[in-house]
Amino acid sequence: MNIGIIGLGYVGLTTAAVLAELNHHVICVDNDSGKIGRLRQGIVPIYEPGLEECITRHCQDGRLLFSDRMEDGFGGCQVIFITVGTPPLDNGSPDLSALSAVIIELANRIRSFTLIVIKSTVPPGTCEWVAKTLLDIGVDPTQYDVASNPEFLREGTALHDMLHPDRIVIGVRTERAASLLREVYTGIDTIYTVTSLSASEMIKYASNAFLAAKISFVNELSRVCDALGVDVAEVSAGMSQDVRIGPHFLQAGLGYGGSCFPKDVGALYHAAVSRGVAMPILRAVKEINDTQVDWCIDKLSESFGDFEEHRQVAVWGATFKPDTDDIRESRAVLLMKKLTESGYQVHAYDPLVKPEVPHVWWFNDMYDALVHCDALIIATEWSLFQDVDWSEVTKRMKGNLLFDGRNFIDRKKAEEAGLRYLGVGRP
Ligand SMILES: NC(=O)c1ccc[n+]([C@@H]2O[C@H](COP(=O)([O-])OP(=O)(O)OC[C@H]3O[C@@H](n4cnc5c(N)ncnc54)[C@H](O)[C@@H]3O)[C@@H](O)[C@H]2O)c1
């Protein structure tokens, strides 16, 4: 099938690669001509394991084409996915201006039946609005349909997640749209959840809000565990064995970040409150997350004792999670900012990125970042931080405090090397 994709970020590029793997021909459009230029030269502008190899292979076999503008008729595409960003506005609601601009431009280019699939995360009612907008512009309603197909990939494992999803959610108005989407995904072995347009849109927000709630719950628990002298890591492990609870998103730490959870929690909260519906649970989820970095800095300061003597720290990790170069809403970056504002001198290392953070010194080598430091803080759970030579860490540091901001380091190994281990909610 010929398929179009508009918006080539983390979701759009992964979708393009996966659809090419499924033997479709994909026309990929983004209005960032610099990005299109790089993609045409074989340079993938984001880091996602396996993505560059996959895109390069399918550029060579002619399954992927890149353009910075929509063509009339869009190359005979029967299905067009829209994967533009929907970042938050100041009031928490999503900015739908990119989606709106795409729909208006697309309206003038539809020449034969086209299924427009909204993959971007959008509030319930948006797909209906898209359908009505096309009608209002004068597009023949027999020539298009609109479907919702929210994306659940996780950055860092995006290709795998899209090729092996737990389920594919499709919101449709017609059986024709549902069967076209099933045809698009032929070759992917999973279950389909077929719903109305607005239920599909809501499933995405509800899922992200629920996962964020699990993280804030365990972070709240870490505070009471800290006060009671209980190890939250042992508690999480014990809870995880209950199949009704499960093991995922139950690790206490610096809180959730990234381009989705904070944005989607905020958008759902805004949608509720602006209709007079209070969401106290969601408000608390956000509140705990917003204060978790400060809570961790307080714990760090307490364990230092004399601040004047101890104020140089190394932070390992800057991305919002491992195996990505994405720093949007990263707790690690927020931690660095707050540490410098509190008077700490910060040395930083990340295997992929060096974001501009005022007064932070970046190092190319993770061990070099430790020199003269009183403490090491692990802010992102990159697996290479688990395999470090802890005796080398001890040798390079001035002090001996290790703050595991993600509760994922082997505590015993670090302590055997002479480090004083401090976790989140781990006495
Ligand atoms: N990143 C994730 O992990 C993830 C996971 C699931 C869902 N989502 C959702 O998917 C959507 C896209 O997320 P992302 O992280 O890929 O965004 P992104 O910011 O990485 O990419 C968006 C792309 O859209 C392009 N764009 C913007 N306006 C355009 C226009 N008018 N015409 C053509 N291209 C345009 C931008 O240039 C950019 O390349 C969002 O709604 C997000 O919430 C993201």
Task: Sum up the structure in keywords.
14 helices; Rossmann fold; six-stranded parallel β-sheet; alpha/beta; 427 residues; binds nicotinamide-adenine-dinucleotide
Terminus-to-terminus distance: 57 Å
- Helix-strand category: alpha/beta
CATH superfamily of the largest domain: NAD(P)-binding Rossmann-like Domain
Small-molecule binders here are:
nicotinamide-adenine-dinucleotide
User: What does the average pLDDT come to?
Assistant: 96
Counted up, domains total 2
Examine the coordinates and then state which fold CATH places here, giving the name of the CATH topology of the largest domain. Rossmann fold
* Counted beta strands: 14
Which CATH first-tier class of the largest domain would you pick? Alpha Beta
Q: Give the biggest sheet.
A: 6 strands, parallel
Strand content: 5-15%
Compute the CA-based radius of gyration. 24 Å
Report helical residue fraction: 40-55%
What is the N-to-C succession of helices and strands?
A: EHEHHEEHEHEHEHEHHHHEHEEEHEHE
Going by CATH, the architecture of the largest domain would be 3-Layer(aba) Sandwich
Q: What is the count of DSSP helices, taking H or I runs of 4+ residues?
A: 14
General shape = elongated
Q: How do the strands of the widest beta sheet line up side by side?
A: 3-2-1-4-5-6
Low-confidence stretches: none
